[in-house]
Every structure is written in C-alpha cells, then in structure tokens.
Predict the 3D structure of the following.
Amino acid sequence: MFQAFGVHGPELTPFADTVIDVLLVALAFSLLVTAPRTSRHDVYLLATFVAAVTALRVLLQPLPNVQPVTVAALLVGAQLGARRGVAFAVLVTLLSNLLIGDGWWTLFQAIGWGAVAVIGSQLNLGTADKFRSGQLYVAAICSAFVFDFIASLSIVTAGTTLSDFAVYLAHGLPFDVLHALGNLTFAVWFGHFVFRALETVASLEELEQSVAEDYVVEG
Amino acid sequence: MVKRTVLACLLLATLSLLLPVQATTPESWELEWEVNLADGYITTHPIIDDDTVYVRTSGFWTGEERPQVFAFSTDGEELWNRTSATTVQHDMSPLLLLPSGSGACGAWPELVVVGWADGTVEVLRADNGTSIWNRTSTTQGWGITGAITLDGDHLVVPTRTGMMRLCISNGELDFEVELGLGWRNGILVTSDAFWQGDESGSIWKVSREGNASLVADLGGSIRHTPIQTPSGIFVHVQRGATSTVHLLNTTQATTVTVHQGGASPAMPVSNGRYVVTGDSLSLSTFDCQRNCSLVSKHPTTTNGEMAWDSNQALWYPVNQPDGNWAVTTINESGNITSTFNFSTPHDGYGTAAPSFGENRMVMGNDAGVLMMYVQELTITANAQPYDWVPVGGAVLFISLLSIGAYAASINRIDWAWRLVLLVFLVSTIAITPDLSSQWSESLTEDNSNGYSDTWNDSWPESWKGTQVVIVEIDGEQQIAGGLVGYETALDLTLAAANEISWEVDVESTELGSYVVSINGEEGSGWEYFLNGERAGQSSDRQPVSDSIVLHWRLVRR
C-alpha cells in the first residue's frame, strides 16, 4: 500500500519545514497562554506529560499504527479543556516527529490529534471516583478513525482523485482497526490512572481559583 | 491456582528447550585422507561408489605429465590409473560410471566411460582400468569436453562438432551427426529426441534416428547440458561480460529470456521444480513450475559444477584465489535460506563439484589435490540459530491468558479484561502485515486488463504479450521489455533494472519491501502503476500477470 502511493505529500524544503514547525509551536504556546487559569504547576505537569507521551510514542513507533498519543489527547482534552488539549497534541506531534521523521505530514497529524483533543473536551467522563470508562472506550475507538482520516489527507495532491483517495483509505482499513484496538487497550490499562492524575491538576486549579475568589471577596 | 499456572509456564518453557534444530555443519565433516595427483587440475567431479573413488585430471601441461584417470579405494589406496599419451589439453568431460548390464549389442561389466580431449571415447573396466573399446570422433582443436550421457544400452557422446550414439557393450556406432562446434556442451536425452547447445548459442534437436534440426539461435555460447523443466528446456548462455537465462518451449520452438546474470556461467542444476544457476556475480534460483521465474539470489562466484547432497543442500566451488566450497540450502519455496563456507587445507580456484557417498564426500580442485571427507554420525544439536520468537510468544500468550483466567476466578474482572485485551492487541499486531496484504490483494483488481491501452507501438513487436517495465525520472523513460515469468512487481522491477543496468535500493519492512531509490534517485518517493492503474500494495506482494506494463514514476513535489 505505502509503496503504491509511495509518498508523503510534498517534499518540503528545510525552510518550509521550519516555518511549519515554528507556526505550530506558536499555536501551542498561544493556546496555553490564552487557556483559562493556567498556573506554573499546570505548565510543569503538562510538560512532563508531553515528554512522557512523546517518549512512549517513539518507543512504540516500530509497532504498526499503535498510537498512545490519541488516548492521551482525548484525556487531556477531557480534563484540561480544548485549548490545552490541542496545545498538548501539537507539542507531542512536533517533538516526537523531530525524533522519528518530520515533514508535511506533521501538520496533518497535529491537526488530527488536535481534533481528538477537542472531541475529548466534549466528553463528560465524570470524576476519578465515578469514572465513566465506557464513554472513554467508545471515544478511544472512534477517535482512531477520525485521526487516521485527517492524517491521510496529507497524501492528497492536485493529481489525487476522489477515487484514488477512497482506495487509499480502503487499503489502510486494517491499520485503522489496529489503531482503534490499541487505543482501547491504552484506555483500559491507563485511562483511569491518567484521568486521575490530570484531575489533580484540575483540582489544584479549582483550589487556586477559589482562594483567589475568596481574597477578592474579602478584600 | 497460582502454583498451577507457574507450573504450566515452567513446563512449557522446558519443553521448548527440548526442541533443538538438527543440522549438519562444516564441522560434521572430517578430512580422512588426501592425495596430490601431481601436476594436474581436477576440473570435473570425482565419482564415488561403495568402495572406489574415480577421478580424472586435466594435466598442467608444464612438463611431461599427461591427463590421467585414477581409481582409489575409499581408504586412499591407488587401485589403478590410465594415462592418455595422445590427448590434448582440457580433459574435463565428466567420468561416467556404469553398472554392469546387457543390451541389444551385448553385455558389459561395470565400466568407467572416459571422453578424452583428443576426441576418443574410451570404455574402461571399473575394477582394473583396462580398456574394453575406444572410438574416435572428429576433433577441431580439441575433442570431447562435455558430459557423456546414458541412453538405455547406448551412450550419447557430445563430440567437438556434434554428437554420436554408441552401443555400450562394443562401441558400435548408431549415428553421428554434425552440429555446431561444442565446448562442455552435454546432451539432454528425452523420450523422443536429444537436445544440445553449441558455441554459437544454437539449440539443436536430434531425433532418435539421428536427424538434426536447429530449434533456436540465442547467440552467445551454451556450455552445459540443457535442463528439462516443467516449463520447457532451460539454458544459461554465456555472453562476454554477462550471461542470459532462456527457456525453450519445445512444442512451439520459441524461446523467452528469463533472466540476465553475470559472466562465466556455471553448469545449472535442477532438483525437479527449482533450477539453480551460478555465475561470477551470484547464485540464483528459478521456479520452473512457474515459467522458471527468478526466486532468489545470493552473491558469490561459481563457474563450474554444482552438486546436491543427500539433504538437498547445494555444494559448489567458489572459483577465487582463496576459494573454498559454499553450501547453500534452498527452502520449499525456492528461496536461498542459508549459505555456509566449507574450507579445506587446499582452498583455491576450483570448478569441480564434490561427490557424495554414504557418509563420505570426495572433492578436488585446480591444485590437483583429491580429498576424502567422512561425516561424523553425531548430529550437532542447535547448530543453526533457533528462532525462539514463536515459542517465546506462545509461552507469553499462554501465561498472560492463564493469569487473566486466574484474575477472573478471584473476581478481578478488570484485570482479566486488561490481560485478554493485551493478548488480543499483540496477536493483532502480529497478524496485521499478512492481514493487510490479503486485504489489499482482495481490493486489487486483476491487472491483466488494460495491457493494450498502455502498449506503445514504438516498442519492439517481440515484446508483445511479455512483461514490460518503464522507469520514469523527470519525464525521461528507460524501458525494458520481453521479460517473462516474473510473479511479483518487485521481481519484475529487479529483472528490468538488471537489463538496463540500474541499481534498485529496496528496504525491507514489516509491511513489505519499499523501493527507496532507482538509479540513486529517491525524490519524495516512487509510485508504480500496472497497466495504467495505480497499484494497491507493496511491490513484493503485488502479483503481476504475464502481459503487464509496470510503470515506475519518480515523484518530486
């Protein structure tokens, strides 16, 4: 399949590559800055999570289409909101692709995982004590197909017909299924754990907010 | 329960340790004796029967020495020798050992049949080397250099200028026929005719009555016995710095070029379905159930004889200054699976194959040293690296499932679910490459259609109905056609690249082979089309039909 199409979209010059990467970094930081109630603690924790998921993605790269980033983006979106979720997705994509291969597809992967983070932000997974795992599992499976579709758009060029693209998607179906199964496995094994860890961040934010609000009231 | 699970895992692990691969290795052969045959090349394989070894030398021609035929006991004692005072250089016609028998012309004892380079066929008693009869043939510079073949109660002899058929018992001539000049050009005997190549690349068919007809003219030189295969007659033609492999359709008298190889081809051998060729670049295997399409290649230099041992491993001399013998195993799919080197105390140039008896092997080389090896009867365990992955995987799977079952039994359903899912994921990862390949194949349309639409009228007419490959770089096309029998797009591509002398860089991945570059060009990738339609999977998994236009295009964007 991959040889038949053989290419990953346009071959970028180093300059164009750098421009795209800089734009994505700028987007990630602007989203972090504009996200509500971002504390230094949040930034540290998010940075740690970005580093951990990046390492995991690089580590699991030899496995075909097993993508830990997808479930991570869902959970970050669900717990920390769409902006931080998208920022997380963009940073993990950039950092991991620096290690395993950067190019035109980075843009589409960042958009794909960003979209997954936005989907995550629309989920209501409850609390750590009353975790709605079923919702996470369904979202994990569906987001595999969403991400793969968006990432596949990177091969589209002026010469690609709709039928070419449909054939391309059809050939990739076994790998989409594998991605979905990998997501489900990650969600079952680590979903609750990560959700709880990220809830701590959210709780700290809420605590800081309430302290600030009390101060304003008392002041 | 835990104890039982651990016990089961330990049992499985122990069982897996008891599954060594049994194989022979170079170490399993031990040199028993050797003899220097004094100033003579051994350029054709010795023969070994129950208690005797027969070998011939070609003579160095530096002094008074002359070519000889020797018989040794399997203990290394010389039993007799026969020297020709009249022969010329290049005595390399393989000896033929015949058991005693009888026919229309009379009876004969056990014989050694010798073809001499002065054109004489001489039949010797195997027990004492005395001459029973001899017959001369036409010479032109030299005489008999090819393999004499048995045909019932007759011998079929490749002479310098053609062939002759003689009674075994008394040498009476059945027929003699003039063909092209020959060199090491043995004769293929089939039920209805005799087939022989010559120094002009012609293939001759001679009927049982001795009527000759020219069947094909391939150019180059055919210096081996043609091989009969299920797909036709197989020949490896020597041409200057290259060689070509051809298949002759005997009913239609048409030939197709199957492959292009390196210089100085060896004498190909067959084990039924697969034919193996050698040359100065490589050893190659061909699947002759499927039009003798190329299956695999192994880089080496071998220009003489090759021989199968009793385990169906192929032995051949590596014809280099420090050459030894190489032993190659070929699996049921015709792929070369392993090759090991077999060194002797007298490594050097050589073209003679070894011969095998019961637990014995005898070999000689250009240094003129005959060596007898015996095989130790102990089988070496774990001689080849054992592939632990399947056993390890099975043990891991069973362990995880057992633990999952245990978790379920103590109501830890969450853990049972996790373990089962993990096993399922790992299994799916393992089967996805094959599954994906099958899936892509099912989506791929039959690529035999559209050939006429993609056919270009400027191409040679002889390419019609064959496999054609176009390699396009920046609008410039290199085209190779007239190829036949290739089964996958990658095999066809490699054959075409060989024709146009371009390098193809292929990277092997779990998802198939990826063509990284052709002629050093990578661009942002290569894409390929079959009869104008975009292909659906990696080229090594993409089947191609007999009439196909495979178009590779470099993408620069």
